[in-house]
């Protein structure tokens, strides 16, 4: 077991995340994006393509490390850097565009929910940025990239209503990181500081996002309306 976790854990996690995202978005893909009754903004397609490319690249990169093909791993890392920079920008821009699109169709929106997307993109950006900063330290680099990718799964878990209770999606995001912490405990007999610092930091951001979303302090209502538009 210890050898398997040491050798294949990150490959397993990358495939698990890809499966979760595919399982969450795949069934409604034709209805929402391929053959929609009303075509959504183009930026939604771009955001989806970049997100899928990120997850697929993670699977490839982990496989390359396992195969000791570090040269190609570093070359593809340049593409990964471009994707990582693009993801949070596209994520925020897509949220704004979709909110305005729904308003144009006469649908009501709740801009305060923007705190959830903003937290996810900010958490991804911090983890990704630190992973790039410590790219010469593999034990930090790989764990930070895993955390960054886990941050992208909240939207997927939120769509799995038959598995995930309402508003419990962050619990499942954090559970992915807990799996990594358990792996560390088994393999290296301690939890790496990336996880011991990273998970509490993520939880703090999630609590703040929920506070802004549900308590609706005036400053956040005004700011979210300014950024997104729409009624309270």
TrEMBL record:
Superkingdom of origin organism: Bacteria
Transmembrane segments: 7-30, 42-64, 76-93, 113-132, 167-182, 194-214
Species for this entry: Undibacterium flavidum
Keyword DNA-binding: no
UniProt entry keywords in alphabetical sequence: Membrane, Transmembrane, Transmembrane helix
Protein name as annotated: Membrane protein DUF2306
